[in-house]
Amino acid sequence: MNTKTLYVASPERYDNGMIYDRCGRSGVLLPKISLGFWHNFGGVDPFERSRAIVRHAFDHGITHLDLANNYGPPYGTAEETFGRLMQEDFAPYRDELFISTKAGYDMWPGPYGNWGSRKYLMASLDQSLRRMHLEYVDLFYSHRFDPSTPIEETLQAMVDIVRQGKALYLGISRWPLEATRRAIDYLAAHDAPLLIYQGRLNLLDREPEESGILRLCQEQGVGFISFSPLAQGLLTDRYLQGIPQDSRMANKPCLPPSRLTPELMQQLQAWNAEAQAEGRTLAQKALHWVLSRPEVTSVIIGASSTAQLDDNLGTLSRK
Ligand SMILES: NC(=O)c1ccc[n+]([C@@H]2O[C@H](COP(=O)([O-])OP(=O)(O)OC[C@H]3O[C@@H](n4cnc5c(N)ncnc54)[C@H](OP(=O)(O)O)[C@@H]3O)[C@@H](O)[C@H]2O)c1
């Protein structure tokens, strides 16, 4: 497809098998499969490939795109890529999109570009909005809990962000259980209820289940969205025959080759054989496992090609 042509979204985008589920006890419906911008959308990545992936996603009903201030690399450039797409392709579709961004990890030098102070969160979101050419985001996350900032400061800054109209909903990511409980109570008491918790849940990492986060979210009517549901590509056919040159493992420090132990390879081969017997790919088996949990609203996948996206979307047509 020549992506340089003017984009007109597929008229079939809501008839392609995407399923939308209510996010906790809210009015918001999220697609079961969402697209994340952590990798493959930075300044180092080919823009036209990024564009093709996002167009393909939206054409298949993926309305939720997940960003963060420091996605790239370099930091900020995933939001810039999205901002360009917003201007060139998606301006007519703003109200059909649910865009999230986050602040919480290191973003700029000095004492005000990290963690959970009011100073950082407010300034960071303003920067994000400028990069993305948006007036507001649909969802703003605290990207991680800051044990050194009073929890009320972080949470009140988030409430005020909603009051200012810069975000419609609030989320937290990777917060520990007790702090999450306090966040739910504080935000509810300030009329800006917690919409969603973002945590890593996949066949290899069940921490949100073990820590009680999943149960808490369900009890409290908070949605749960899983990031890295494919364990950064481990739970796909990507590494079954070795480490491809163009893969995340070959190129990014976040997925070192040391992860691929003989024990893990054996487990992956066994899951792959089971998947094949079930008529699925390994990626589809992994996504199906996460999505079949009743507490899970959506999964945020990453993709470096439209073919990967198609494989992942295929999960929804195989029960
Ligand atoms: N809140 C947080 O702290 C946090 C942390 C991490 C991520 N996230 C969010 O979650 C999103 C997804 O994370 P992730 O990228 O780690 O997700 P993932 O879906 O577990 O991994 C994505 C990678 O797996 C490979 N892949 C995906 N589908 C494939 C398929 N069908 N066949 C073969 N390989 C496939 C690709 O690797 P190659 O690039 O090698 O092709 C792709 O880049 C992020 O973009 C971000 O929005 C949030």
Architecture overview:
The chain is of the alpha/beta class. The protein has a single domain, classed as TIM Barrel (Alpha-Beta Barrel). It has helices at 47-59, 77-90, 118-132, 151-163, 177-189, 207-210, 213-220, 248-251, 262-277, 282-291, 306-313; strands spanning 20-22, 29-31, 33-36, 64-66, 98-103, 137-142, 167-173, 194-200, 223-227, 298-301. The strands form two sheets. It has an eight-stranded parallel β-barrel, surrounded by six helices. The chain has a two-stranded antiparallel sheet with strand order 1-2. Helix 2 packs parallel to helix 3 and helix 4 crosses helix 5 (177-189). The longest helix has 16 residues, at 262-277. The model has no long low-confidence stretch (mean pLDDT 97). NADP nicotinamide-adenine-dinucleotide phosphate (NAP) binds at residues 36-40, 66, 143, 173-174, 198, 227-233, 236-238, 247-248, 283, 300-304, 308, 311-312.
